Structure formats: structure tokens, C-alpha cells
Fold each of these.
Amino acid sequence: MLRRLSFLTVLLAAVLFIPGSVNAQEENMDSVWVHITLADNLKDEAGNLQVVLGWEVYKKMYDARNMSYGEWDKVADPAELGLTFRAEVAVDSNFSNIVNRSETGELSYTFDGLDFGKQYWWRVVLASGDFQSRWDFAEGILHEHVAIKTEGKGIFKWYWKFVKEGSMVFMIPQHLLFFFGILIWILIWRRLWLANVFPPNKPGLIYRIFPVDRVGKTEMQSAKGNVFVREVAKYWSKAMESMSLSPEDFTSKEEYIKADAHLEEEMAKKLWLDIGLPNVEKAIEICRNGVPGIKLPKKPLDYATIRVMLAALENHRSNRNSFYSSQEMDRAAENTVLKELDELKGWEVTGLWAIGSIEPMMGLFGTVVGIRSAFGKIEETIRINPSAQLTVIVPQLAGGIYIALITTIVGLMFGIPMMLIHYYYRGKVDWIFGKWEELMTEILNQA
């Protein structure tokens, strides 16, 4: 029984320890570590990429007596140990597609004829010597660098550098659209000067360009108000007063009380011929030819305000002192106002709104395309290098998104000002409409 137990013990020990002895025999030998320390890029005479690969060699001795390893010691001259190395460069991390390789006994090697901007992996493998060995590998995308001489800093240089980092496929249309918006803004800015809508008191260019003296350009009641509008209103108001009979128009109160419809009609005609028509004609003449002594930069009828007033005045002259005269003047003025407002807005106000809306959408489109491209590069990297680490993937993703977001930043940077300008001028057109309505109401309410 004891013999059988001893036999089983020996057999079990053989099963457990013999494989371990074999593995120990394989591992219990001196080890060599090839450590890459340099991967520098140059450019050869043909303009292609050169990569200078350098490495160091470390050896770790095995102590058979103590069955242990010492520390890694640097090997100064690998040739003394008969070591040679195989330097390899590949386009994938598995080194299944090697584009260049060479054996050398030196501690460096130069790869020629590579392409800038392409992903490469490098490694140096121990090619000879009865040692266990380990090695590193390096990877990277090398780009051709051109020295740039910088002369100070400025907002334009910063902006140009910022724009170049984005996608020119979207940058160029965005900038062209923005410059078109600037042109639209210049056109509508000039047309909507208050001195181009209301006849100004002074003909000077500075007075017309700058937003000064709003009272002198648009007000009627103030003593410092618009001289042209005040002159038209002065004669027109007298004509409006003649539209209603009062006791002062008769010889006595009894005559006013006893006056029949026929007499009132005759008196109204007389008032129209003596007061109403001459004053209306005088107001129309001022609208057509201007106020004597007041020089205007352009003809009176080139101002929208004068055209609105002239339309109502001509309607007043046609309808005389009839009962519906005020209503017809209101209708004529309203129709002319709507026409003039459309001309003041033109296509430019809508164009500013369109540009302000399209710019951010174009930027968003560029961002979506850029993010898609970033994820595509990550997919390609993982397909080529299944063991790619986050240190490779994350920079690719972050860099792609960074470039993609530039188009959105530019789109918002251009779109927001265009929308603000659009709302400003739309509000200004509404303000002009309110001012016309105010002027016409002040005059026509006297009827």
C-alpha cells in the first residue's frame, strides 16, 4: 500500500513540475531589451520623408544559482555580444505590411523614400544572438514643416491662422456670403439715412450721414424742426381749415343760423376758391420745386416723405372740399406709404435676414461633415491597427471635432451681426412709417 502511494506521489510530481522545469529552462537565460529612443524626421533631396531611428540596448543577466534576474544594464557596444538588429517600418501596427526593413549592427538606421502625412509604425527587433528579447515600437504621422517668419501679432493674423485651421470648402462660401452681406448693408444704410427719407435742413454730407439732429430732420411742430415739412404743413393746414364753415364766414350769426344747404354750398365753394385751392396749390408747388432759399442735395420728389405728402395733396385738390375729401386723402396717403415702404425695404432687408439665417446653417453643415470625417478616420485607424490605444484615438477625435467646430463658430460670428442689422433696419422702417403717420395725422385732423 505504501509503495502504491509513493508511486502516485512521484507520478503527480512529474505531471506538475516537469512542464514547469521546461518553461523555466526557456526563461532562465540572459535577456536583451531593444529600446527605441529616437524617431526624427528629415527631408531628402527628392523631397520625400526620411526617418532616422535610434535605439539603445539593455541586457539583464540571469543568475542560475539564485534562479533570479539582475537589473537592466545598458550595453555600450552590442557588436561585442554579436548582436544585430532588424529595423522595420510598416503601415499597420501588426507589421503585416512592411514597407522597408534592414539588418544592421549599429544603433541607428535611416529610412528613405517615405511619404509625409502618412501613418507609420517603427520597430527594431533583435535579429541575432542566443537571448530572450523584447522591443518597443513607435508610431506617428509626420508632416512636412515649413519655417514661417512672423512679424508681430495682430487680430488679422490671428484670424487668418484660425480660419486656416478650418475646412476651406466651407470657409470660402461663408466669407463670400458675409462680404455680400456687407455690400447689402452699405446699400440699405445709405438708402435709409433719415436725410434721404426726409428733406434735410442742411445739404452737407456730414449732416446727412451721421445720426444727428433727428428733430431737424423729422419733426414738424418744433421750432427747430424740418423746415420743408413745416412749410408744406403751413399751407396745407390753411387749406384744411377752409373745409368747414364757421360763423366767422357769414356776415352775422342770424345769417349763419338761417343759412340753407344751397347757401352753405355756395359759401363752401367760395372758401375753396379763395382759401383752399390757393393754399393746396402752394403746398404742391413746394413739394415739386422746394422751399425758396433752402438748398437740398437732390430734387424734392426724390424724398419718400414728399411723395407721400404730394399724393395726399393732389387727392385733396381733386376732391376739393367734399365730405369724403379727408377719407380719400387718408386712402391715397396710405397706399403711397405702403408703396414707399416696400421701396425703402427693397430686397436688402430680406437679404440680410437670409444671410443671417444661412450662415449658421452652413457652419452647422460643415461641423456635421467634419465630425463624420473624424469618426471615419478613427474607424480606419482601428481597422488598420486593432490594438490602437486611446492615446491615439482620442487626439484624432478631438482634433477632428476641433476643426469641424470652426465652421460653426464662423457661421455664428457672421450670422449674428447680419440678423442684428436686419432687425435694426426693419425697426427703422417701422419707425419711419410711424413718423409719416404722425405727420399726416397732425395735418389731416385739422379737416
Note: The chain has two domains: 30-141, 155-447.
Amino acid sequence: MPPSGIRLDLLALRSLRSTEASVHLVLDPLRLAASAPQALALLARLRPAAIFTTGGYVAIPVLTAAATMRIPSLLWEGNVRPGRSVRATARFATALAVSHPETAAALARDGGGGRAYVTGTPIRDPATVDRDGARERLGIPPGPRVVLVFGGSQAVARFSAAVAGALPRLVERVAVVHVTGEDGYAAALAAREDLPADRRERYRPFPFLREEMTAALAAADLVVGRAGASTLAEVAAFGVPMVVVPYPHAAGHQRANAASLVEAGAAVLVADEDFDADALLAATAILDDPRRHLDMSAAARAIGRPGAAAAVAEILLALAERRPLPDAAEVEAIATGGRP
């Protein structure tokens, strides 16, 4: 964040991603206790008009301090199944923004005191790039359909292994944009060199896609990926059918997230343990059935919320300016692109 020009203030508490018994079992409560006065001092110095949080563990001291100082706050949660920290902090937020109606109901049962809005997940703007320009930007040759494969930040090796095993057969039928991660990039480049010379341009590996991810989604005819909230929201907004492989070690969050696209008819689900080269090749059969592909694309667009960022911003600005919160219908219209 600092290299991007965004100020970063750190509290004493740390991430709770690790669960094994260690000295942190003793130190973490002490860090949390020390973070409470830190948060109070920070808010007293900054005097924010409002606070936006995604409700993780770090939000506990911040939201409790905000409630004490009567600073309005907006908590956003993108997963269908809210995590423990989100459930614990929702009651301190003035308003809640969520991606799924089920999430609002769950947080209400847990005592979330703020008004809940279904905004969707803030994403990149799908209108910033066209399909032909996106293909040219990524160096994809004209003609073949495009499959985008990316495993996110977790367990990307399984995706890379599947691509490696299927690659010679894949490039006979489609072009592949593959996000490998830093560790898998060298192997992907070597696999590209092993392809026949007239097929190499059909395989475009990248260690990461940052600004280019918008182009990759615009160019794609099929996405193969994990079930993180942002991934699913972007794929739906771009109207791309998806083969979703939920990460199995996230307390069931990703499987629950994937269910929304699968039930809508916009995606097919492959279990992590079943995803390999043969499963990847079988998944691309969606591209061989024009009617199925069209129906899945329409289903994705129907549940997409390309204006989610604007909807969240509208709520946050209302809190900051101490004006009445918008009604649910207005937020829905903004989120679905009904108005800027």
C-alpha cells in the first residue's frame, strides 16, 4: 500500500490464519487488548467522517472504537457464509453491505444491528475494454476460443498441473491464458516451448495478471478458477461461463460461494480432488455446445452486479454526510447498473 501512495497504520494484532498451538495463543489476546487503545488514538487523530471495513479480525478494535466515538461505519462481506470475525463485528457496524441475501439473513441472526443491503461485490468496470482490444492486448491470435485459467492465491499448483497435462490437446482446440503464479511461471514457459511452433501463440502464461485481468476476462469464452467472492463477481459481470473449483480448506466458504453460480446455471462445479488434466479437457466441452454456452452466459449476466462498487460508495457517502441511508430499491438499481 505505501508504494501506491496509500497511508498504512498497523495495529498490534496479527492475522489469525494459523491455528496450531503456539505462544501466539497467549500473545494474541494481549495484542488484541493493546490494539483497542491504538484504534481509539488513531480515530481521534484522523477524525474520519465514516469507516469502511471488510470485517476481518483487524476490524474488532476499529469498529468498537468507532462505536464508542459515534463514527458511522459500513461493513462489507462478500462470502455467502460470513466468517467468525465478521459475525462478531457486524453488531458494531452502522450498516452492512453484502453480496448475497443469505449473508444478510445470517448476520441478522447473529445480532447485526445495522441495516443490510445486497450490493454485490465491488469489481473492475467491465465496460473499460472490448473483446477484440482485450485479445490484442494479451497477444491472443484471432480465431480460437479463449479459456482463462487461474487458481487465485491458494493452491495454484493444482491448476498448473492440470494445464501442463492437458496443454498439447488444449491448444489444438482453444487458446489458453494461464495465470501460473511466480513459482510456476518458468515451468509454463518451458511447456510453451515444447509445443509445436504453430501452436505456441495459443498458450499465454503470466505469473500474475493485475491491470491486465480486465482484458483477460473480456477476452475469455470460459473461465476455470476458484470460488473467491471477487472472482465469481467479476466472471458473472462479464457474462462468462465458469468451471469453478472451490478451494477445499476455507471452512466451506468457497463451496458456498460457488453454489450461487451453479444454481443459477452460470457455472459447473468440479471438486478440488477431481480436478486434473482430464477434468480440464472435459470442462472445455462447454465451448462445443453453442446453446449451452449462450445459456450459461445469459445466466451469468443475470446475476452479475457490475455497479456494486458504486452501490457501496452511495451507502458510505450517506453515512459520511450524515444523511438518510438510501432505500433498498435505489441500491439495487445502482448495483445492477440501472443508473450511474
Note: The longest strand covers residues 145-150.
